[in-house]
Write a structure and sequence with these properties.
Helix content is 31%, strand content 23%. The N and C termini lie far apart (45 Å). α1 packs antiparallel against α2, α2 packs antiparallel against α3 and α8 packs antiparallel against α9. With 313 residues, the chain is an alpha+beta fold. The chain has nine helices and 13 strands. A hairpin with a 6-residue loop joins β11 and β12. It is globular, with a radius of gyration of 19 Å. The chain binds glycine (GLY). Glycine (GLY) binds next to β8.
């Protein structure tokens, strides 16, 4: 039994492993691992205390995939929902759909009895307000004009200093079943309604018991254009080793022509439980835990210099 996660998943990985030890499924484990990350007030990239969009509103995205059945559920641009991963699972289990967004997802959350939680903490609001005060002219009319026409400020979301991370979990249970889960508040300063790779099955998340699983963090628009998580699994299906598959999917990022080229990192596992992390930037790590480990360990991700500095326009 094995759980791997992006480094910010450290706060939940032991809970995820406990679920597997208690006989739970890989799906149960990824959900249990992600929930503490979504509640972590120190993490401004996921759930409660996530950084808001251009209008100062927190919108979260999540997805979950069952490698045994290839069933998946996802939610996007959802407000006031602390545990988007659990809502994504409910979409998978209760509806004939895969992805719900915005007001429909919020309606479904209410119907399923999820509490409404204000996700914007004082901390996150202060970070948002500091940028707002620096970038937006202070006169009353200019501020009102900002609310009407915010598109030119969307570029701020692509500032490399703005967080755009995510939490990823992959679990392999005692029966060899794989599951993946992803949750994020997306790019801070994103245009309202923007979805990244996290709720898009194939882009930010994919699991297939027969071959393996992968999940992404970082610049979602890049992973969406290449279906990066699915690429890893396809390469495994074609017979590549896990390392070759992850390297190939990461190297492809270098073909993107993109003025907002940035970091994308992956975690991946093959059907036998070999695992690895990859990134097109240096110094990235991920965490892992097997059932015979008392505490989790951190490992470096393989750095694949995808197109050097990236192909900017
Ligand atoms: N990878 C998270 C996002 O782009 O929203």
């Amino acid at each position: 039994m094995l759980v791997i996660a992006s480094a910010n998943g450290a706060v939940g990985i032991e809970a995820a492993m406990q679920v597997l030890r208690d006989g739970g499924s890989a799906l149960d484990a990824v959900e249990a691992g992600i929930r503490p990350v979504e509640s972590n007030p120190a993490d401004h990239t996921v759930g409660y205390s996530g950084l808001p969009n251009l209008l100062g509103v927190v919108e979260v995205d999540a997805s979950i995939m069952d490698g045994r059945t290839l069933q998946a559920g996802a939610v996007g641009a959802v407000q006031n929902c602390e545990h988007a991963i659990s809502l994504a699972r409910k979409v998978m289990e209760e509806l004939p759909h895969v992805l719900l967004v915005g007001s429909g997802a919020e309606r479904f959350a209410k119907e399923m009895g999820f509490p409404e939680t204000d996700l914007l903490t004082a901390d996150a609001k202060a970070i948002w307000a500091e940028i707002f005060d620096t970038k937006v002219p202070s006169g009353c009319q200019e501020r009102m004009a900002y609310v009407e026409s915010i598109r030119r400020y969307a570029k701020l979301a692509a500032d490399p200093e703005r967080p755009n991370e995510t939490v990823n979990f992959i679990a392999r249970d005692a029966r060899g079943n794989l599951a993946t889960g992803v949750s994020t508040s997306g790019w801070s300063w994103k245009y309202p309604g923007r979805l990244g790779d996290s709720p898009v099955i194939g882009a930010g998340n994919y699991a297939d018991n027969r071959y393996g699983a992968a999940a992404c963090t970082g610049r979602g628009e890049m992973a969406m254009r290449l279906c990066t998580a699915h690429s890893v699994v396809t390469y495994l299906k074609l017979g590549m080793t896990l390392e070759a598959a992850g390297r190939a999917a990461t190297a492809e990022l270098g073909y993107l022509v993109d003025p907002y080229f940035g970091r994308v990192s992956l975690i991946a596992m093959d059907a036998r439980g070999n695992h690895a992390g990859f990134s097109n930037g240096p110094d990235a790590t991920y965490v892992y835990m097997t059932d015979d480990m008392r505490i989790y360990a951190e490992a470096p991700r393989i750095h694949v210099a995808a197109g050097g500095a990236g192909r900017r326009l």
